[in-house]
Write a structure and sequence with these properties.
By secondary structure, the protein is an alpha/beta fold. It has helices at about 1-10, 20-30, 45-50, 65-80, 95-105, 115-125, 140-155, 190-200, 205-225, 230-250; strands at about 10-15, 35, 55-60, 85, 110-115, 130, 135-140, 155-160, 165, 170-175. The strands form two sheets. Strands 2-1-3-4-5-8-9-10 form an eight-stranded mixed beta sheet, sandwiched between helices. Strands 6-7 form a two-stranded antiparallel ribbon. A hairpin with a 4-residue loop joins strand 9 and strand 10. Helix 2 packs across helix 8 (about 190-200) and helix 9 (about 205-225) packs across helix 10. The longest helix is centred in the C-terminal third of the chain and has 21 residues, at about 205-225. It is globular. The relative contact order is 0.16.
Length: about 250
């Protein structure tokens, strides 16, 4: 099982992420036995990425300093063959975010993109009303546009929501399950991106590894919701379930 495999390997996952979710991401990675590092200064990101197994770029609290650091780290990771995962948080909310994502996609080769439907629409240039960091509203064919983006950038595209969709441009799969409480705690999508980064780095069948990660994340959401009554406890239950799955596997 992928989380058990990650625990055995103890990969260093370099997260260039946002300050809203950094603690939750770090604890989630620790829960499955990975080693998180959250370096984002331009003076050290290239050196840090050289010792990492995977690099996550998350633009949640974007600024110009971080943007430059992300470009440095991403290019270094590409040169070293280290997989880079993109989480284009709220990519369609402002023109600055959209332009930044376009530049990142142009200058960095991403192994995978993990986004919600609104962020997919922004990358695909489909009309959409994004509501801050939430997915927003509009009309889009997830399957068609995700497949186009996967083929255009030669990467795996994951679109998460009530149902998740994954494609590498050739293969595709829907993943059902989960619990709506995941939308009531900040950072659950961002944590999933970090887990996907660790999963991608854990073997040589990335599509299958990421598909298993999506399935497990849906299941642990259900388990966490069934064992808690209050939303504050739910976040802790998610971390507990990650820890249990990485040690004991599925029940």
């Amino acid at each position: 099982m992928i989380f058990q495999k990650i625990r055995k390997q103890n990969p260093l996952i370099h997260c260039m992420t946002n300050y809203v979710v950094a603690n939750f991401q770090a604890n989630g990675l620790l829960a499955i036995g990975a080693s998180p590092v959250m370096a984002d200064d331009g003076h050290e990101v290239e050196e840090m990425v050289t010792i990492a197994s995977g690099l996550l770029i998350n633009i949640g609290t974007l600024n110009e300093r971080m943007k430059e650091s992300m470009l440095l780290a991403g290019k270094k990771a590409n040169a070293l063959g280290i997989p880079v995962i993109l989480d284009p948080v709220a990519a369609g909310a402002t023109s600055y975010r959209k332009q930044t994502v376009q530049q990142l996609l142009k200058d960095i080769k991403f192994a995978a993109i993990r986004c919600n439907i609104g962020e997919l629409a922004a990358i695909a240039n489909v009309d959409w009303q994004q509501k801050g960091v939430d997915s927003g509203s509009g009309s889009i064919s997830v399957e068609v546009e995700a497949q186009k983006i996967a083929q255009l950038y030669n990467c795996i595209v994951i679109v998460t929501g009530e149902k998740d969709f994954i494609t590498d441009g050739t293969h595709q799969q829907w993943v059902t399950g989960g619990n709506s409480q995941m939308t009531e705690v900040t950072g659950t999508g961002c944590l999933l991106s970090a887990l996907c980064c660790a999963s991608y780095a854990a073997g040589n069948q990335p599509f299958d590894q990421l598909l298993e990660t999506l399935s497990l994340y849906k299941k642990l959401a259900e388990k966490a919701a069934s064992s808690t009554r209050f939303i504050g406890d739910f976040q802790i239950a998610v971390l507990n379930e990650l820890h249990r799955l990485s040690k004991d596997g599925e029940e």
